[in-house]
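User: Continuing from earlier, I have the next pair ready.

Assistant: Great, send them over.

User: Here they are, in order.

Assistant: Folding the first of the pair now:
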Amino acid sequence: MMLAPSPPLAVLAPPAVVPQAHVGAGACDAGRSVTAGRLLAGGILLAKRSWRRQLHRTARLAVRQKPRSKPMPPEQKVYPAKELCSRCGFCNTSLVGRVQEACAFLGEGMERIDALEAKVHGRRRRIDEENELYFGVTEENGLRPIRMASESRPERRAWTGVVTSIACEMLRSGRVDAVLCVGSASPEAPLEPKPILARTVEEVLASGGVKPMLSPNLLPLEELWEVRGQDIRKLLFIGVGCQVQALRSVEEDLDLDVLYVLGTNCVDNPRDAEALQRFLRSASETPETAVGFEFMQDNRIHIKHRDGRYERIPVFSLKEPHTCTGVIAKSCYACFDYVNALTDLTVGYMAAPWEGGKMTEHSQYCVIRNARGQEMVEAVSHLELGDPAELMRPSLLSREGVVPGVLKPELDLAFGQRQPRDGPPRWLAE
């Protein structure tokens, strides 16, 4: 990098001091000499300090050394985890040489979460404390309902706008230099993911919307070693469990001043765009207009469409339910980090009491795991945190028959039993 030349010493020197009238000529000459000498010395000192700052800044930028491993191309068909690969993007970066210790589906896999919890949060979860047993490390009163004030919800958002608003405010306030989030592959394919390093609030807002399939969220990390990414010292990463585990395993290699991790809950993802469309055809009357869906607490699939309308389909009334077999990625069946235990802050909805209404206006829940998570929540003034006791209320919806009912078609098909072409009538499923 070319360094700008230091400014002339005359520019650095302050105006000369004019001697008072009663001082003799000889004394004036001597005074001028001393003053000039001091000014020269001061100018040299200032120039050296400026030069050192530039050198320090240059050296700082050069510290981030790119790993030597060659990334796998994105079109790669077979990855180290084979059929269990979640296509998280890790192997498509120069970090691929550390895949054995970072991948959630290789070797000890998610068993590493125990040790990583202590590394990230300063302690492991307390298994004798029920909330931590299920939800992971939690700050005091850190498990609670969360929602956006209705008048403050951004227009472009995935669901309620909580995650989007936090990401925007972290950028706006200068807490981070960039946000790694997921945009859409194209306007024609809004549900297909394209991870990006967003530098502006506008870029974050433009990435709004749901992408319900496997996503290579770690892929943009490769930009950190390029010239355009060298100035990113503070990063907010948004992702799900398998991605976050890999990220935490190599956090030191990223040479960041601070890394914030904001996560969402994750259960099942379609493995690719074709699988996603198969599912939508089974669930929706107009799959071509769907812009998002979610399995909600009322045991229905809520499908949002471009025109703003919603379909609420009972899980058991799916058309051709057997077509859903093979839709969900095998990595999701092998994952047990639904709660995203290695984030600083997790936001989800399944632990939140069912309120009815639209999923985009429903309350969610959050798990504040450490001081960074607390900072993210406090950064957004229009976030409303509810009473932790609200999450402890018993559910009014029985799930005893739901889980076996959902699993039965999968198990029957796995053991060779034929499935009916259509689900039960809508009135019966209701």
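And the other member of the pair:
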Amino acid sequence: MDESGTTDAPQALALHVLQSLVLHSPLSPFLRPHLTSLTSTCLHAFASLSWAIRNAALQLFGSLVSSLVGQKKVRDDTSALNSLTTPEFVSRHPSLVQLLLSALSGDSECHTEGAAECRSTLTLMKLSHWPRNTIESLFLSEAPIRMDLLEICSDAILYEIKDCHCASWLLKCESCFWHHLEESILTPKAMAAILQFLTVIMEKVESAGSSIPTQGLAVLLSCMKGLQGSSATYAALVLLAHLMRHPANITEDILAAFAGVLSQHSHPTSSEDHRLAASVALKVAIKPIFTCHHQVSLTVRKQLVMSTVALLQDEDSLIRDTATGIVVALVTPSGAIQEHTPHSQPNPHPNLALFEFFRQLAFEAGVYVVSCKVFKLLCEVFGVSPELAYLLVWSEKGYGTVDEMG
């Protein structure tokens, strides 16, 4: 049987022949004894895997309707003259009524396992209009969270979090979501949703993220390494970037793991989603790491700088433009609020952002490290500037000033 519907199967041709006979006026007075069998044929054909057969059955049934319920008598569709009562229909087609009742009460031949639960989906979609206490009862408790509820209602929960201005309620949400993050039954989609909830809370509440459960942090690191899918990796990178503003919770090992993943994801051979995630995460984390984490190793600093340079030189224009936000975040004074208005100043060109990035590093001479290869590339593009003369560069021989490196 042709399931693609590209050719007419014999059954489809037979249904088209029956339709032609039904539409033949001289035969119409003799159709009534056969209406039940013709309708039964249509019902069985509706369950066919072939589109051609289903389509032919639909056309045949359309031809039978006028014989089943009668012709339209007046133009007004709401007129009682055009209506057919149930007793009249039953008296005309008693066997057809039994056929329809048995079809409605029986199981579908194409029934899919779990399809019966779909009836609850429409009800769950109303969650976006439910009050906040209903969301609390479903998701903000110590009981294990239902994955189907979370996946269906994630957009509604995210909207509620973004719309909320009550810090205490958001902190309550944060505590519950960290608790749910430790559950081993989470699906990758549910994991990514919870990580996104926590990220939005971190963006809205300054004190959020100050107390992180150890197990939750371990789950976050596993997601960041790609063990829960690309969506969870993206969300975990950005969330951990926000957590960098609390140095007390970030150990040197965590910082090294974060920088290592950023270095891996910013590489040109990485996927576009991973490179974009690295760019967004660096934009959030680079300022806190360079200003608040005073015991950061030179290896970590080098990885962050090299990742930024790689993203600013990415072949994808979207990623390059996103990476310019890293430089803007680094040079923006602490405490300044960046407002995104129609008249706000756009981010600089990636090449200018690259120059500004090294210029900013030069002002902090002796603190930041770049490779000699990157420094020579910069000199070839822009020439040697006074600021670069103080930039500390890295080579296999150690560290030295520009003059010492020649």
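Worth noting for the second one:
Residues 339-343, 365-369, 385-406 have pLDDT under 50 and may be disordered. The longest helix spans residues 272-292.
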